[in-house]
Amino acid sequence: MATINIQRDSKDPYYRYKMPKLLGKIEGKGNGIKTVIPNMADIARSLSRPPSYPTKFFGCELGAQVKNEAKNDRYIVNGAHDTEKLQSLLFTFIDKFVLCGACHNPETDLVLKDQTILRDCKACGQRMPVDMRHKLVTFIMKNPPPTFKRSSRKDKASRKQAGGSNSPEDELLAADSDDELTRRIVSEAADLPDASHYDNDDDWAVDDTSEAAIKARQEQLALDMGKLAVNGDGDDDADGGQSKYDEFGDFLTKDPSASMADIEAKAQELGVWGKHRALEVLIQALFDADVINQLKKFRPLLLKFGQTEKHQRSILGGLERLIGVNYPEVLLDNVPNIFITVYNLDLVDEAVFMKWAEKASRRYVDRETSRTLRDKAAPFIKWLQDAEEETDSEEEDDSE
Question: Whole-structure pTM over 0.70, yes or no?
Answer without folding.
Answer: no
